[in-house]
Amino acid sequence: MFDLRWIRENPDKLDRALTRRGEVPCADMVLALDSARRATQTRLQEMQNKRNRISKGIGVAKGRGEDVQPQMDQVSALKTEMQELEVSERNQGMELDTLLRTIPNAPHDTVPNGSSEDDNREVRKVGEPRRFSFAVKDHVQLGEGLGLMDFEAAARISGARFVVLKGAMAHMERALAAYMMDLQTTEHGYTETSVPLLVRNDALTGTGQLPKFADDLFRTTAGHWLIPTAEVPLTNLVREQILNEVDLPMRMVAHTPCFRSEAGAAGKDTQGLVRQHQFTKVELVSIVSPDDSEAELDRMTGCAEEVLKRLKLPYRVVELCAGDMGFAARSTYDLEVWLPGQERYREISSCSECGDFQARRMNARYRPAGEKKGTQFVHTLNGSGLAVGRTMVAVLETYQNEDGSVTVPEVLRPFMDGLMSIGADDG
């Protein structure tokens, strides 16, 4: 969320940022609403002063025994008009606040221009895709062939975009998450955190999913929302808080189910695990001081990369262009893993630096060392470390064998009771 004073002073910068994102410039609309509200506030203050003067005069007139009914009628009329103006000012404020909350973050100056994923910039490639001496199967063929992945059963229970995993494949999903959590907590300094899966409106507004992306979420009849990512509860742990600089950076990690309606994904990845309504993910969140946010993005990206390196999965790092970034992001690196079944790189992690955009929405601040009163907004970052289902897709397809079995990556074997491969007998 933007500082309104900054928009007043830099309307052209806001519109340029929105244009870079492919959004409609709206500085004029913001300033018009702001001006109307300020005019109403000024009028209210003037009327308040006038009422105070008349009320004071009534007291003096009463002391002289004069007729004060005309003045009392004036005060009554002013009170009625002020009540109407207060309603108007409140509505203008709500309209302005709603507009401000629908404006995406401004891209960092270093973010490349562009309108779609075709304009993203490849930063580096790591590892070479495996060359197969046999016909490659995709993860659906592998999972169903082994009898350990059942989409039909899931559809009978829940409909499309769900799956039932069985036996060693369900174990692999759990093992991947445990491996990721151990790596991030024991080697990278993230604090393991267990968070609620149901959140209120304010939490999703704080991280930027509401109000603009309500259609992408699942809502309960009790008014809670199912989390689309653990970024929401993790980041909101600092909402309405004033932290001490000595406590920064805060680095947290959580393994949770995630729930997304995929409202805008009609016809995309209808088969398999790549785009599901329910999936599990290991999420990284950092809360830092403004001076450290850019370096923290590089660090977080490296922490996510390490998972792929140790699984020996080929991948590439891509810097997203302004038009392809998420709503709250100021800059983003995507990790894209090679999927042999699709013969292409697919996103498996998105690491974003949000500046103070989310912090303003959450009123999350810190007190710099040595200052007793002054506070600043923290900077927030989030990233997948990694999406578990997509990681399993990459493992199944990369480590498949000609007979349809799948070799278990070496680093996963301690998390799978030493199992070296998954075959048809591992249900």
Concise summary:
By secondary structure, this protein is an alpha+beta fold.
Question: If you had to describe this structure to a student in words, what would you say it looks like?
Answer:
The structure is a single chain. The protein is 40% helix and 19% strand. With 427 residues, it is α+β, with helices and mostly antiparallel strands. Strands 1-10-11-12-15-9-8-4 form an eight-stranded mixed beta sheet. It has a three-stranded mixed beta sheet with strand order 7-13-14, with no helix packed on it. It has a two-stranded antiparallel ribbon with strand order 2-3. The chain folds into two domains: 4-101, Helix Hairpins, CATH 1.10.287.40; 117-422, Bira Bifunctional Protein, Domain 2 (BirA Bifunctional Protein, domain 2, 2-Layer Sandwich), CATH 3.30.930. The chain is built from twelve helices and 17 strands.
Give short descriptive properties of this protein.
427 residues, alpha+beta, Helix Hairpins, BirA Bifunctional Protein, domain 2, 2 domains, three-stranded mixed beta sheet, 12 helices, 40% helix, elongated
